[in-house]
Design brief:
The structure holds 3 protein chains of 3 kinds.
Chain A lengths: L1 H42 L2 H16 L2 H14 L6 H26 L3 H9 L4 H32 L10 H12 L2 H29 L6
Helix pairs in contact in A: 1-2, 1-4, 1-6, 1-7, 1-8, 2-4, 3-4, 4-6, 5-6, 6-8, 7-8
Chain B lengths: L7 H5 L1 H34 L3 H16 L2 H15 L6 H26 L3 H10 L3 H31 L11 H12 L2 H29 L6
Chain C lengths: L10 E15 L2 E13 L2 E5 L6 H8 L7 E6 L2 E2 L2 E3 L4 E2 L2 H9 L1 E4 L11 H11 L5 H14 L15 H13 L5 E5 L7 H16 L4 E4 L3 H7 L2 E6 L2 E6 L1 H7 L4 H14 L1
Parallel strand pairs in C: 3-10, 3-11, 8-9, 9-10
Antiparallel strand pairs in C: 1-2, 1-4, 4-5, 6-7, 11-12
Helix pairs in contact in C: 3-4, 3-5, 4-5, 5-6
Amino acid sequence: MIEQIVYALPFLLGGFQTTLIVSVLVVVISLVGGVLLGVALIYGPLAVRLLIRVFSDTIRGIPILVLLFFVYYGLPAAGMPLDAFTSAVVALTLFKIAQVIEYVRGAVQSVPKGQDEAAKAIGLTFTGRLREVIFPQAFRRFLPPWINGVADAVKGSALVSLLGVIDLMYAINQVIGRTYDAMPLYVLGAFIYISINYALSATSRHVERRFSYIRE
Amino acid sequence: MGYDLNFTLIWRNFDRLWGGLLLSLELAALSLVIGILIGLVLAVWYVSAGRFVRFLIGAYVEFFRNVPLILLVYLVFYGLPQVINIAYDATTSFVVTLSIYSGAYLVEVFRSGLEAIPRGLVDAGRAVGLTPYQRLVHVRIPTMVRIILPALSNTFISLFKDTSIASVIAVPELTYGAQWINFNTFRIVEVYLIVTAMYLATGYSLLFLLRQIERRFRVTRQ
Amino acid sequence: MINKEMGATVSGPPLLSISQLIKDFGETRVLRGIDLEVARGEVVTVIGPSGSGKTTLLRCVNFLESYEGGSIQIDGREVGFLDLATRKRRGERDLAAMRAETGMVFQSFNLFPHLSAGKNVMLGLRKVRGKSTEEARRIAAHWLDRVGLGHKFDSLPSELSGGQQQRVGIARAVAMEPKILLLDEITSSLDPELVGEVLAVVTSLAEEGMTMLMVTHEIAFARDASQRIVFMDEGVIAASGPPRELLAQSAENPRLDSFLSRFRASHF
């Protein structure tokens, strides 16, 4: 069994690299996009808020796989041919953006109303209140669920293998295709994913504890 | 390049989508039930067990929460028959996978539900003279059920969406039906519009239904 | 008993002038035409049963709540509106500037949890009054000392007791040098043994001439610290006057009488 794992490792490493790249791209782009849209959802004009709401609810209401296929097969038909890698990143990023929007909304709305009132009482303007009082607290509430969500992005990245992108999952199946010995490879793959994600959720729990003074 | 929407081919093959939707719901429901059994038993065991058992249950939960579902599906369908002398079809294998997967999440749900039971209720049960087993069955579990009902509904809706992964091992649920129509008619945009609508409509209907049920069983917080 | 006759002057045109104030929450009329004046240096306490509108009244003064009718003026300037006839609201900056002139201390403290006690007090000084960091730090340290918490400058609110948090809240409001201090049931959330330290701070501020409008359940404190007590019931002022006079009025005023009877046994 050890020989199989040793044989497989170089291929898996290449796939692992792709998994990391996909995950990082998705997490970073969705963070920027999601925070911007999330803030727009809370403070924007009605039309904008409605649009973002519909977007977010629709994306979160369908399976990631459906979104993935829709983007991969649908965009070329609509005149925008994208390669597998780009389609995959686009689809996963859209999905994650919807999640980040929810994290932002939850974080800001969980800041007690009394905080805004106390900030008003000392004479801070709207932007001043957001900058000095609301956002610092919202940020600390945003971080733990978001870090947890990064683990979801890593798990979701495994689906890109279905589009032919050579990530860790694809590499595992590829090796099994040659060696016919499935179980050890799947178990190994599982442990690689676990190492990444467990580290992330442990970090999330640690951050939550460190910032627990924020919650009364 | 223009694209003319043409839904007729979709309607002609609609039974694949409709049948797929029903199968998805069945898969989700079945997995939820089995997952509840697993989760409840393990949660009850967890709260009254020692460190070693707690470690084992914790390991089970962490394993299934940190591995992509698709890998688990492959592992159970392709990997397991190589080590254990077992032969099953794709659908059965998927139900096994999703049940154990949901069980891991439900252990957490039930555990925090049990720990959220107000101490006063258990003490009242003791004061009345109920045995530990009676307290479990007549006081703790009913109370816990009411507390965790929202989390349970959300889990069911999640599972319903997770059934789309079954399509990778050719289980004829909704997403597989969509892909079949996609490959056989090339009506990509139409089929995925329909399927998106179906997932959304089902999801919201489930949400509405489950909120109604929750309302009937709501725990009033003092 | 605060001897205001010998202390700071209670005179001149009213600092706060509330006239025919009307406030609705949806269908319910919560304030039905309130008339109230607070002179510079005066301490006025509002008492009354829950639901009488006393907290709402306070929150209108710094426009945390808008009002549908009537007028609230601080030093002659209308608080919420540019023009009473059209009821055109003040802009964001305008409103913020007006709020900087009033200080509020809240029942639930509302300290900023991500900032230390000192930084809580410094925030308004730096961002609203435009003071430099060193200047703000100096002023904040002075006020925290004044409320007995100079040694807790770097402590987070989560590390402070309720009474300490409330005293920081008072320092935060007073450091802004507001024209009038609004105190909204500031001891209602405190354990009984912590109430005294907070009331002591309020008393000393009053002795130094701070203008205050206070809502409280601490009737004994109201009697000792205020020049005037106002009794509110169901959205109107049902009785008002200096503490001794008010108690005398309870003989003719049944609502006042029944309200005070709850406290009579323990306080009077």
